[in-house]
From TrEMBL:
Keywords assigned: Repeat, WD repeat
Encoding gene (name): EIPR1
Function: Acts as a component of endosomal retrieval machinery that is involved in protein transport from early endosomes to either recycling endosomes or the trans-Golgi network. Mediates the recruitment of Golgi-associated retrograde protein (GARP) complex to the trans-Golgi network and controls early endosome-to-Golgi transport of internalized protein. Promotes the recycling of internalized transferrin receptor (TFRC) to the plasma membrane through interaction with endosome-associated recycling protein (EARP) complex.
Family the UniProt entry places it in: Belongs to the WD repeat EIPR1 family.
WD repeats: 275-311
UniProt-recorded name of the protein: EARP and GARP complex-interacting protein 1
């Protein structure tokens, strides 16, 4: 049943005071002038699948514009996200966002990223303190997007974390480990880490080149191990890429223009190509973490498509829920039927793609696997296969949503980032969570 109700104030009543205490310098953006100027008609929002019992979203505002977001992949205990800013006037920053889910508040630390505005950020899967950024560098009136690997200060790593009162107002300095030298290859689009490795291999995409790097000497040196190039007419450029967690991490998918291509990292040769995967530019890719050969893509045609790379003539499924470019798509790491998308229509959509998931008939777990609060319900689960559907539409953003991602510590929690610097942390609706678990 659909429920209509007026939008509520985000967070607890003392959210403004809490933000000012924990996050000085950040603007609390839940009650700005734009939201106050909305008419009653737009204030009545439909949030499909969300009820009054669901936890309210938590919003954090950065001082600068931003489009780069990643969870701290190697951190599986604390809920932590990294956000990179885009400022032309001031030193850019990486905000380390720690979410306290018990008290529903955010703690943050700030790292200075003085080399340029951040276009992409990724975290090492093996070392919690190591990350990579792609950033703009201006030299001789030319702008080149470069890439580097960094280490955050030891005191900011979990276990040796300063208290918010001591650290939140102080900007820390990143330690440069190495540059990924792209002087001969062009502007970097993204850096992707080998998913299950020791954090010593990364793929970077530079113009029409795909580059495989070995990080040596404690990541202080990057050696180009192999490379491949796009061949064809025109100025071919990669827009995004993703390293597959399957096949012993020997496959990478890339997007250029309207095409999606697969590569074997051992030979750096193309293994499949989806020509015209989208009607317009492909913006993002993600592999199903639990089902081999399945890949999601999104693009400027407002669509999200799901592919079986063994047969790329037609997509397995297509979603057309967004009304503008779709910038980001992410599978849930544990429950691959849950798919997040973010778009220039300012919305985040959570879809339940159960029919093409690794468990299309649902999942049964032992009582021992459930917490006291998640005891098995007496009702029997329906034996009919669930249908694909949009679970929830999140409308806390007022600008283009450039990035969405799941927490690496809590499979039911995710973050989204819009260009105005608004980071929103949300949870999967409880009803869906219990349905999946029970």
């Amino acid at each position: 049943m659909e429920v209509w109700y007026p939008s509520r104030k985000v967070g607890p009543k003392n959210f403004r005071q809490r933000m000012e205490r924990v996050c000085p310098g950040a603007r609390e953006s839940t009650h700005d002038n734009k939201r106050q100027s909305h008419s009653l008609g737009t204030d009545l929002r439909r949030l499909s699948g969300r009820s009054m019992e669901d936890d309210a979203p938590v919003i954090y505002g950065l001082e600068f514009q931003a489009r780069a977001l990643t969870p701290q992949t190697a951190e599986t205990d604390a809920i932590r996200f990294l956000v990179g800013t885009q400022s032309l006037k001031y030193d850019n920053q990486i905000h380390i966002i720690d979410f306290d889910d018990e008290n529903n508040i955010i703690n943050k630390n700030v790292l200075l990223h003085q080399v340029g505005e951040i276009w992409h950020i990724s975290a090492s899967p093996a070392d919690r303190g190591v990350l990579a950024t792609c950033y703009n560098n201006t030299s001789d009136s030319k702008v080149l997007t470069c890439a580097a690997v960094w280490r955050m200060p030891k005191e900011l790593e979990p276990g040796s974390h300063e208290s918010p009162d001591d650290s939140s107002s102080t900007a820390h300095t990143l330690e440069l480990l190495c540059h990924l030298d792209n002087t001969a290859h062009g502007s970097m689009a993204c850096v992707s880490w080998e998913p299950t490795g020791d954090g010593k291999k990364v793929i970077s995409l530079a113009d029409n080149h795909i580059l495989l790097w070995d990080l040596q000497e404690s990541s202080s040196q990057a050696v180009l191990a192999s490379s491949a190039s796009l061949e064809g007419k025109g100025q071919l450029k990669f827009t995004s890429g993703r390293w597959s967690p399957h096949h012993n991490c020997t496959q990478v998918a890339t997007a250029n223009d309207t095409a999606v291509r697969g590569w074997d990292t051992r030979s750096m040769s193309q293994i499949y190509c989806i020509e015209n995967a989208h009607g317009q530019l492909v913006r993002d890719l993600d592999f199903n973490p639990n089902k081999q050969y399945y890949l999601a893509s999104c693009g400027d045609d407002c669509k999200v498509k799901f592919w079986d790379t063994r047969n790329v003539t037609e997509p397995v499924k297509t979603l057309e829920e967004h009304s503008h470019w779709v910038w980001s798509v992410r599978y849930n790491h544990s429950h691959d039927q849950l798919v997040l998308t973010g778009s220039s229509d300012s919305r985040v959509i959570l879809s339940n793609m159960v029919s093409i998931s690794s468990e299309p008939f649902g999942h049964l777990v032992d009582d021992d696997d459930l917490s006291d609060q998640e005891e098995r319900r007496p009702e029997e689960k329906s034996q009919e296969p669930p249908q694909d559907s949009v679970i929830a539409t999140y409308e806390e953003h007022e600008d283009s949503v450039y990035a969405v991602d799941w927490s690496s510590a809590d499979p039911w929690l995710f973050a989204s980032l819009s260009y105005d610097g608004r980071l929103v942390i949300n949870r999967v609706p409880r009803a869906l969570k219990y349905h999946i678990l029970l």
